[in-house]
Amino acid sequence: MSEPAGMIHWEAQDSIGILTLDAPRGNFLSDPEFIAPEQLKDLLDQDGAKALVICGAGKHFSGGARLDDLFKLAANPVHLAERMNKGKSLLDFIENLDIPVIAVINGICFGGGLEIALACHIRICSEKALFAFPECNHSLMPGMGGTIRLPGKISWASSLETILGGDMLNAQEALNMKIVDEVLPQEAGMEKALLLAKKMTKDRPRKVIRYILQALRNYKSMPLAEAMKEETRMFCELAYEEMERRKNENLL
Amino acid sequence: MKTSFKTLSVTYDDGLVHLEINQPPSNRMNSLFFNELSSLVDELCKKDGISAIVISGKGRHFSSGADLDDLLQKAVHPEKELSSSGTFSFFERNHFSFLYFEELNIPVISAIRGVCLGSAMELALFSHFRFCSEDAVMGLPESTFNLIPGIGGTSHLIKLAGLAKGLELVLHGEMFSAADALQYGIVDKILPRKEVVPFALEFAKKISVNYYKEKKTLYLNSAA
């Protein structure tokens, strides 16, 4: 296994995990798999995280992949494909987590950085944030799910323009296009994310959080009838447990 | 033949069906309501010439949602959930009733006054249009009772409000105002309390000629 540990920093506050991308000069990612999914899972478990916040150290979220690193990897196509697939699995893992995931975006959020942000459930950015898929400017294309996740969130036409055009978008433009959910003054993003995470999860049993996220995932991945059946099943299970709890406390 | 219901009032005006939840003051949805709704759906399925459906609540409120005590009484152990009288089949059937409205190719409009919470919010989310009064209060508070929305509420809310806002509203379970709902994309129009139901009925009549589900915005703009 490669050593991704050098690219991140971890801390936890009140059952909220904070994963900080921390790499030289704008959090460039030298490896798409910036943390192994198993390692992330261990960290979340170890701190009993009910929500995850992902941010960048310093002024920027992440500038994505560094081109020279990428071309070094590209010399061995099999190896490159393997690294990209690992990176994709990591983003899938993050998107499919059973807890809410919030991206706090300051400064630059380009390419692979934007792909990480798009894998999160909620995106909060600072007024000075900048977004882009610059890959096309280098005769490349997004390779970590950007061409799939972006049109899943914004219109097909805007996706085409953003990806093929390769132009930068400022925070307000990103908000108008619904690439981000909220724009706040610089520095206020982290505070808001922690507040929001706390508000959403503090009084909620883990099972309720897990089932709500599972219901959402099912809705995306299953035929409608099946997703609805699953939702009913989960609801009935919770209803039974709540009934038992109330009986035990003589509330029913 | 028309069945008469205790918890529902159904008025036919040519093809326009006006369905009112009839358990004032709060129009709480108990198991009798869900059973009657299911019978009504059966009845409507067999009926020809329906051109539009408007759903509202009798009195001040749309509905405060499912009767939690009544519902929890019905809860049985998931592993014992085999008989057709279990909670699972009860909710499956409710799901089917709600889905019936959503899948219709005639306009289905919820006219929301006052409170619209939980399962009532879910019912409204299965409509094609939602008009509400200025003083409407909406929400999916299930998670505050250690439950989750049980009839498609989560997915439907997120479809309208987006993942970020939807997740926040469902996980936190907070109530939101008419103005917020309009901003989040959950309701289509806010009207003075007195005008909500008449407007919905008028709107239903107007758009039910050659109705196309896909042209929702067009109809809304024409009614502005």
Question: What do you see in this structure?
Answer:
The complex is a heterodimer of chains A (252) and B (224). Chain A has helices spanning 24-27, 37-46, 67-74, 77-95, 112-119, 146-153, 156-165, 171-176, 188-201, 206-221, 224-248, and strands at residues 8-13, 16-21, 51-56, 101-105, 108-110, 122-126, 130-132, 169-170, 182-184. With 252 residues, chain A is α/β, with parallel strands linked by helices. Chain A has two domains: 4-201, 2-enoyl-CoA Hydratase, Chain A, domain 1; 206-248. A six-stranded mixed β-sheet of chain A has the order 1-2-3-4-6-9, sandwiched between helices. In chain A, a hairpin with a 2-residue loop joins strand 1 (8-13) and strand 2. In chain A, helix 6 (146-153) packs antiparallel against helix 7 (156-165). The radius of gyration of chain A is 19 Å and the shape is globular. Chain A starts with 7 loop residues before the first strand and ends with a helix. The model of chain A has no long low-confidence stretch (mean pLDDT 93). Chain B has one domain: 2-enoyl-CoA Hydratase, Chain A, domain 1. Helices cover 42% and strands 17% of the residues of chain B. In chain B, helix 1 (31-46) packs across helix 3. In chain B, 50% of the residues are buried. The chains are: A alpha/beta (252), B alpha/beta (224). The interface between A and B is large, with 40 and 38 residues.
